[in-house]
Every structure is written in structure tokens, then in C-alpha cells.
Amino acid sequence: MPESFITHLECSNCGETFEHTDPMRTCTSCEKVLFARYDLDKASSSKAQLRDRDPNMWRYREVMPVKDEANIITLGEGMTPIIDAQRLGKEVGSPGLLLKDEGVCPTGSFKARGLSAAVSKAKELGLMKLTMPSAGNAAGAMSAYAAAGGLEANVFMPKDAPSANQVECLAYGANLTLVDGFINDAGRISGEAAVERGLFDVSTLKEPYRAEGKKTMGYEIAEQLGWKLPDVIVYPTGGGTGIVGMWKAFDEMERMGWIGSERPRMVVVQAEGCAPLVTAYNAGKRHADLFPNPHTIAAGMRVPVAIGDYLVLDAVRESGGIALTVTDDEMVQGVSDLSCYEGMFAAPEGGALVAALRKMLNDGTVSKDERVLLLVTGSGLKYLDVLTPALAALRQKSPTVRSS
Ligand SMILES: *Cc1c(COP(=O)(O)O)cnc(C)c1O
Ligand SMILES: [Zn+2]
């Protein structure tokens, strides 16, 4: 029977350690991000057993945080396909182009990974009432996993949040509160509710386990590509949990002897209207300033301040990657490209990656014989509010309507 070899939590900044059996959010000394740590010597032999395991992210059970299998809440998330994008690759001039399609995850985005891990671990710790401020896919994923595990979900959303995200929370039976304000207002109200009603806040990187779910993308990329990582991974970055998680996964795999020391160059893509990490990268800084007046159609990237900024920027710099922005119009063009060349109707966050790749191929940051993987984080079906008019405008005509 596979088991988790989690040993403790460790602060990614000051190194202080904590018990993983206690409910924890950030480091109590310095308030930075906590990482789950494992006995990797014991976990290392599990590589040979992977071929017999179910095709979901819990196949990496030994390096996942849940101790008792009965607490795992899974909807089959993970082990998403990596597509050999020949038509799009030819169009943009990157013949080895790969797409990892996270749009097929439960709830339509890779937020399923993080919330499967975090909600499962919360259940294991007896934290049965969860809360989250979110305007997007995280809220739906939390609500789905809470429903499947019998936990209570409370969601605080700005009242102009996309209708898909509101409806899915309602469908999953979450307590949805629409806040007349911005995401930071929703965050404040969620925080107050947490104190008053004893709710556990599962905001990303403010608890240790969502990153553990997202790190499985790193494990999968290695496993699916025969333990040889691509040259470049391009990632649409909001809070940066995915990039932090994958970088951690690569480190764990190297320590277990599953891969060597080579790393992909990690590329952060943000929206021109909300680019705190790109700004900090260009300024040579390790911490980002609050990005004023954030706006973009890509709700997953509308994150004006990220607690894990230093972890994202460290990964980008250590890997020799870069950080760059694209406009909303370029994202829509990218959505169109993924759809028309590869049959993949992606979220604007995914479209952003195509635009970024075109720029990097143009200016020589990436060469045509490098193997590039675009991490397409969600499905376009969650974004009909914004994509319906945007794609119609791009095609310069609405769908033809005929009388019957
Ligand atoms: C949340 C989200 C992102 C950003 O993810 P982070 O790991 O927080 O940077 C990107 N794409 C989509 C579709 C998302 O929902
Ligand atoms: Zn600390």
C-alpha cells in the first residue's frame, strides 16, 4: 500500500519548521510561504511503481501530503494530456511545440489540482469549514472538492465576477457572498468571516498544500516525456503557485534521482494590465510592489500582489528564464490560434502563452529547435462572458443566423 512520506513543514524564507499535523497557514515567525517536506530517501523507490497506478495526480502518493488514504478527495484530476502541437508549431515556427491541456481537469482548470490537495489535507486535519476570496476558477474548484468530501465551502466574490464562476459555486452548494468591491475587499470580508465563524482560509500559498497539488504538473511533465524535461516551460502567472510547485517538484525529483540537474527555462507570462512580477523582474527585485488598478480578461492572472513573489522570481532567475507581458487582444488571438490550429478551446491565460512564444521566437529568446511546453491552464468554456464578444470581434462577424 503506498503511503505519504511527509515529515514536516518548513518555511521557504527563514527555515523554521512546523508539524504537518497542525493546521498551519504561513510561517508564524516571518509570515512567508511554508513548504511541505518529505523523506525523499524513502519516497525515491516509488518511481518503479508508477506504471501500475491510476492516471490522476495522486499517483505520486509518496510525495503528497495526505497520510490516510481515506481522506483523499479525488475527481480524477491530473495526468492531463501533453499534445504534440504540430500545426500550431509550424505556424509560429517552433516545430517541437508541446501543449499540456489542463482544461480537461475537473472544473475546467488546473485549480482542481491545488484544491484537491488542500481540501483533502484540510479534511485530514479536521478543518471542515473552508473559506476563500476568489473571482475565478479557484472558488469553483474549492466548492467542488468540498462538496465531494462533505466539507462546508464559503466563497467571497466581487459582484462582477464571471458568471461561470458564480454559477458553479451555486451548483456545488457553496455559500456564495457577492461583495460590492474588488478582490481585496472580498479578501478582507473573508478574513473577518474566518475569525468570526472559525473558517479555514485556503487562499493560495497562504496555506502549504495547494502548491503540493500544483507541483504534480512538474512530476507529470517529467514522467510523460520519459524523464527528460523540455527546454522551456511557459506559464501564465497570477499568484505563481504553479511555477513554485513545478520548481519544487524538479528539486524533489533530482534529490530522489528521478531526473538530473538540468532544468527548463521557466517563463512567466503576465497581462499588460496586471504585471507585478514582470515589473519586479525587470527592476531586478526579489519582491513585487502592489500593481495599481489591475485589469485583464484573464481572471486567473488578475493578481496584483503575490505572497510567493520571491519564490517565482527566484525560479525564473535560477533557470535562466524571463518574464514578459502580453495584451488582452494578443491573448484572444492566442485563444483563436489554439482553437483553429489544435482544436483546443483554451482560457485567455492559455492564449497568452502563444502570444508570448511568438514574441520570444521573434527576439531570439527562444530558438526554433528548442522544445517548448506551453502550460495551457484552463478551458475557454469558463470564459464565455469575455470570449464570446472578443472572438466575434476577431472574426469581424457574428455567427450567421438563418430563419428556419
Ligand atoms: C489561477 C489561474 C492561473 C494562475 O495560476 P497561479 O499558479 O496562481 O499563478 C492561470 N490560469 C488559469 C486558468 C487560472 O485559473
Ligand atoms: Zn519563516
How would you sum up this structure in a few lines?
The protein is α/β, with parallel strands linked by helices. It has helices at 40-43, 86-92, 111-124, 137-149, 163-171, 183-197, 210-224, 241-255, 276-282, 309-319, 328-342, 348-362, 384-395; strands spanning 6-11, 17-18, 34-38, 82-84, 98-101, 129-133, 152-158, 175-179, 200-201, 232-236, 265-271, 323-326, 372-376.
Structure description:
- The chain is of the alpha/beta class and 404 residues long.
- It has a domain at 82-109 and 211-397: Rossmann fold (3-Layer(aba) Sandwich), CATH 3.40.50.1100.
- Helix 4 (137-149) links the parallel strand 6 (129-133) and strand 7 (152-158).
- Helix content is 38%, strand content 15%.
- It is globular.
- Strands 4-5-13-10-11-12 form a six-stranded mixed sheet, with helices on both faces. A four-stranded parallel sheet has the order 8-7-6-9, with helices on both faces.
- The chain starts with 5 loop residues before the first strand and ends in a 9-residue tail after the last helix.
- The mean pLDDT is 96.
- It has 13 helices and 13 strands.
- The chain binds pyridoxal-5'-phosphate and zinc ion.
- Pyridoxal-5'-phosphate binds at residues 109, 111, 136-137, 204, 236-242, 300-301, 347, 349, 377-378.
